[in-house]
Write a structure and sequence with these properties.
- This protein is of the alpha+beta class.
- It has a single domain, classed as Sortase (Sortase, Chain: A).
- Helices cover 32% and strands 24% of the residues.
- It has an eight-stranded mixed β-barrel with strand order 1-2-3-4-7-8-6-5.
- Strand 7 and strand 8 form a beta hairpin.
- The termini are far apart.
- The relative contact order is 0.14.
Length: 231
């Protein structure tokens, strides 16, 4: 009996160790791939990256965090869940824009990405439930070949897919209702003012819960920067 228990314990330990090793190497792989992309971005902006993959549409970053990523967009919201910016299969996937969006031009642009425990991708997004973290990281930046945007955080909360926060079509009335709803749900209070005349973006990620319907969401106000502010 004791031998059987020991054997089962050993098997369990081996399985756990294998899972940990796989996660370590997958995170290491993601980190290496992103570092290569960052080096190209720093040297040649987006142009070189776009020569490698035309689906790269921009770059998203958050100061004092590990979020510093190319952003992709294709004809669905599934492909880049499991593919990197070179269209290679990857557990970490990519940061990508909703296929329905004309990014930064629509009233509501939506970005998706995985929560990775090493802080890459949207790994730090759930920290925005903490007021202190939100105040220390109030602005994301999104850059294209010819434009740059400051994305000011104004709401963050955990929800489920039963709340349809990824709506892209609005009237003035439904947009006002949507803004009111998400601000009521928010765990944080920021000084950013939103009106129906303002555009917004949403960052959406799964939580570490076993519930596949749970999401963590951060909403930001889109502000296009003037040319002198970009340089």
């Amino acid at each position: 009996m004791r031998k059987s228990i020991r054997a089962l314990s050993l098997i369990a330990m081996i399985i756990c160790a294998t899972i940990i090793i796989r996660h370590y190497f997958s995170y290491h792989e993601v980190t290496g791939q992103l570092e290569e992309a960052k080096q190209m971005m720093a040297k040649d902006k987006l142009s070189t990256l776009q020569q490698q993959n035309a689906n790269i549409i921009g770059w998203l970053a958050l100061e004092n965090s590990r979020l510093d990523n190319p952003v992709l967009q294709t004809s669905d919201n599934d492909f880049y869940l499991k593919h990197n910016y070179l269209d290679e299969k990857s557990r970490g996937g990519s940061i990508f824009a909703d296929f329905r969006n004309e990014v930064m031009e629509d009233r509501h642009t939506i970005f998706y990405g995985h929560v990775l425990r090493n802080g890459t991708m949207f790994g730090n997004l759930p920290k925005f439930r903490e007021q202190a973290y939100a105040e220390a990281h109030p602005v994301f930046y999104y850059e294209t070949n010819d434009k740059k945007y400051a994305l000011h955080v104004f709401a963050a909360y955990e929800t489920t897919t039963e709340f349809y926060y990824i709506e892209t079509e609005f009237t003035d009335e439904t947009y006002a209702q949507f803004l009111s709803e998400i601000q009521q749900r928010s765990d944080i209070e920021m000084s950013v003012q939103m009106t129906v005349a303002d555009k917004m973006a949403t960052f959406s990620t799964c939580t570490t819960s076993q519930n596949d319907k749970e999401r963590f969401v951060v909403h930001v106000k889109i502000v296009e920067l003037e040319k002198q502010e970009v340089e």
